């Protein structure tokens, strides 16, 4: 083999060894990380209430037209009472009428159950709660309350979620630092992070879901989120 060929072969072997060494070093560096899960929980008080009220009238087979007039009068009466109790008109929505046939024990149609819903959305949480807990204040003259359902929401949920994400990342960093200090190493930079779903539950609930939970049944709520983070160490 000529001197020139030997020189080229030697340089090629040296370059290959250098590349192999760099690959080995990089692969070791990639494994030198700490993976942690950070979490943050915040208790909030809802400032928006949604109250769904369903009124009903039952009429005979031949009394359908009169029944529609009755339910319309019922709705107007309830809306008037709501306004008298300080509920803003802009927060009151009257929904469509629903009619359900009724049958006797022989399967013969005997009449109809007519229902109409009123939806109230307001920031006057205490006022709506007082009426929902004692609906007799808005009912009179034979008006029948078929159903009543209250839900609670927060007007600043997006801002609360942002604050929780920040707190969860800070918690993850603290956990990584504690683990690293126990192992005699130091964390450097955040290599990767992923956010879990938000769990919005009633206080002291253990309910969780892979898709997240958004409970609206209570005014007080707990919101929790987790962050999975990977930190490089040296």
List the helices and strands and how they pair.
Layout: H1 3-31, E1 33-45, E2 48-60, H2 64-84, E3 92-103, E4 109-122, H3 125-133, E5 144-153, H4 157-182, E6 187-195, E7 199-201, E8 213-214, E9 220-233
Parallel strand pairs: 7-8
Antiparallel strand pairs: 1-9, 2-4, 2-5, 3-4, 6-9, 7-9
Helix content: 25-40%
**Mind telling me the C-alpha Rg?**
33 Å
Task: Please tell me the overall pLDDT.
Answer: 90
Number of helices: 4
First and last CA, distance:
46 Å
- What is the 3D shape? elongated
In percent terms, what proportion of residues is strand? 35-45%
What are the secondary-structure elements, in order, as H or E?
HEEHEEHEHEEEE
User: What structural class do the secondary elements suggest?
Assistant: alpha+beta
Low-confidence stretches: none
| Count of beta strands | 9
The main β sheet shows up as:
5 strands, mixed
Summarize the structure in words:
This protein is α+β, with helices and mostly antiparallel strands and 234 residues long. Helices cover 36% and strands 38% of the residues. It has four helices and nine strands; from the N terminus they run αββαββαβαββββ. Strands 1, 6, 7, 8 and 9 form a five-stranded mixed sheet that branches. Strand 3 and strand 4 form a beta hairpin. The longest helix has 29 residues. The protein is elongated and about 110 Å long.
